[in-house]
Amino acid sequence: MNVSLGYPVPKPPAQAEPLRVAPGIFWLRMPLPFRLDHINLWLIDEGDGYTLVDTGIANDATRAVWECVFAGPLKTKPLQRIVCTHCHPDHMGLAGWLGPRFGIPLHASQSDWAFCRMLAREGGADFLDCQEQFYCRAGFGPEDLALVRGRGNTYGTRVVPPPPSFSRLLDGQTVRMGGSDWRPISGRGHSPEHMCLYSADRKVLISGDQILPKISPVVGVWPQEPDANPLDLFISSLERYRGLPEDTLVLPSHGLPFTGLERRLDQLAHHHDARLDDTRRGCVEWAPARQILDTLFPRPLDNIEVFFAAGETVAHLHYLMGLGQVERRFDADGVYRFRAR
């Protein structure tokens, strides 16, 4: 636990049992089939129903928990609206299942709705070629590249395609939820246009994955945008959350609700300072991203984590390239190699 933060709600809710964390705001926790084994969802009381923030991943285990919620706590107060902070499967994965079930709208940023809608349907030869080319250029060997082909579009297996229409969240607009005005604050780097939600009168920030209490969100470069610099976007985005009241209650998608937002923003910035130092040490001599990955992530990685680690490694290399501290060359074997200046 991050002891420098405050944890006003020290234990998560029992499965399928919403827990009140603030007036009119309830916490649901859904399972995930990964090392990070949960996601936090938020219910905002509208009187005769609820606004739901984020949905859980599209699998049978999560659907089963939802069925228990519908038969119990939400039996007489149904969902009235879905708000998704961003496009990742644990956040938007069931928007296309819950929305039609209740006949309710989805609210999300345009970029993340469109990315989810597109990627949920990908999977042809051009998709696999794009994936393979990216990881080949990162220095993945034949065994890893066979895994790339074999895994296909894992994103598509974890989401129900979102509805063909949606209501757009815009940074700085006012969204009325639970009798209060909420302001979307956009973040970048973790997803195309992640939206946190802040209520000034409640002093509550629903932070999604952008600001987590114990870990940094994945900030990676992915095959669809191979020359991106998402870490620069993420670090710059952190400044957008400074200046909120010190007693703001932060409701993250993973971990416990916390206070101490300014301290956490400082910690996240310094975390990446340390990772950038590690990246520089990993490319004293010309090296591919796959080799530098082992410096940044020395523990054993499973077949899912290695791809997240590759994206993060390339993100740190691209950030240092942007600062002029690392150079890149493209070698005859089709691999990019990096060296610290």
Set down the secondary structure blueprint.
Layout: E1 19-22, E2 25-31, E3 38-45, E4 50-53, H1 60-71, E5 79-83, H2 89-92, H3 95-102, E6 106-108, H4 110-119, H5 125-137, H6 142-151, H7 154-157, E7 167-168, E8 175-177, E9 180-187, E10 194-199, E11 204-208, H8 230-238, E12 249-252, H9 261-282, E13 287-288, H10 289-296, H11 305-322, E14 326-330, E15 336-340
Parallel strand pairs: 4-5, 5-6, 6-7, 11-12
Antiparallel strand pairs: 1-2, 2-3, 3-4, 8-9, 9-10, 10-11, 13-15, 14-15
Helix pairs in contact: 5-6, 9-10, 9-11, 10-11
Structure commentary:
- The protein is 35% helix and 21% strand.
- By secondary structure, it is α/β, with parallel strands linked by helices.
- The model has no long low-confidence stretch (mean pLDDT 96).
- The protein is globular.
- The protein has a domain of 223 residues: Metallo-beta-lactamase, Chain A (4-Layer Sandwich), CATH 3.60.15.10.
- It is built from eleven helices and 15 strands.
Give a short summary of the structure:
With about 350 residues, the chain is of the alpha/beta class.
Keywords:
single chain; 341 residues; alpha/beta; Metallo-beta-lactamase, Chain A; 7-stranded mixed sheet; 5-stranded mixed sheet; globular
